Amino acid sequence: MERWHEGGIHLLITDGVMPGMNGKDLRQRLAAGPSDLKCLFMSGYTANVIAHHGVLDEGVEFQPKPFTNQTLAERVREVLDTARDQPRSPQPT
What we know:
29% helix; Rossmann fold; alpha/beta; 3 helices; single chain
């Protein structure tokens, strides 16, 4: 994806569970090589179910669905402003 985008990609927002791939796999593909790519996974499944699928590693941000536009905007700002090794908990909607 970075080859089609001239600037760096700073944040990936993706569903945690998708057909044929999960968010973790997508993140690994996009972050191959040196990258400071941050990621916000979202899902209608609970964090426990997502973790059971092996998607939520330590340091991965998660936002449960449903959420409001305001909540998403706030979470995006939090993730971009937070160091990669200091995850924040999802805020209730």
